Amino acid sequence: MDNKLQLYFPMMVQQFGWLLLLFAVLTFAGLVPFPNLILSGIGFLIGLVITFAFEGVVVNLKERKIKEYFGLFGIKLGRWKSIPDLTEVVYTSGRYSQQIHAVVSRRQVDSRIYRAFLKGPGNYKQIFASGTNGTRIMHEARQAAEAFHLPATNYTVKPPVKIF
Fold first, then answer.
1. Cα dihedral 43, 25, 16, 96 sign
2. Nearest-CA neighbor of 89 among 27, 148, 29?
3. Rounded to an integer, what is the distance from CA 48 to the centroid of its chain?
4. What are the φ/ψ torsions at residue 114 (nearest 5 degrees)?
5. Are 91 and 156 a contacting pair, CB within 8 Å?
6. For the purposes of burial, counting CB atoms within 10 Å of the CB of 53, is it exposed (0-12), middle (13-18) or buried (19 or more)?
7. Strand order across the 2-7 sheet
8. From CA 29, how far away is CA 17, in angstroms rounded?
9. H helix or E strand, kind and range, residue 43
10. Which of 53, 62, 85, 143 has the fewest CB atoms within 10 Å, measured from its CB?
11. What share of the chain is helix, strand, coil (3-state, %, to 5)?
């Protein structure tokens, strides 16, 4: 299982990256007079990293290993770690809302994000799947529970229900 979880940098930092990219492109095109093209090139590279960096998790079910990675343009940097003894697989969701402001109005955007966690002794909790498609995330939670011979619990309903 290989899941791209989220962008590495917060949205405001990512927007700054877009501005760096735009400034560099306008400078290279000659539309913005900037005396040093090397600085524009450095800004372009920094903008690429800030804008397109993401983080994710790869789970190797057969070898019981997990890799949290930093990704950029398909290159995934991270180390494989052994998964400790686990107690259960957790399927849960959260609701997020955001207000989008315009010049004359604002609107509320609500979204639901589904997540699957590996839960172990103590405080061990590792997210391995996240997204807006609840059936896909539930399928991956069930698949991990079957591979690790663990119970899987759906916490999106009350009372929680065993899904495997």
1. negative
2. 148
3. 17
4. -100, 145
5. yes
6. middle
7. 2-7, 54-60, 65-72, 75-82
8. 18
9. helix 37-52
10. 62
11. 30, 40, 30
Tally of CB atoms within 10 A around 26: 14
The answer to whether the pTM exceeds 0.85 is no
**Calpha distance 118→86 (Å, rounded):** 7
CA 40 to chain centre: 29
Q: How many CB atoms lie within 10 A of CB 104?
A: 5
How many angstroms separate the first and last alpha carbons of the chain? 18
**C-alpha–C-alpha distance, residues 78 and 148, integer Å:** 23
Where do runs of H (alpha helix) occur along 36-161? 37-52, 134-148
Distance CA 92, CA 29 (A): 48
Respond yes or no on whether the N-terminal peptide bond of residue 159 is cis (omega within 30° of 0).
yes
- N residues, the chain: 164
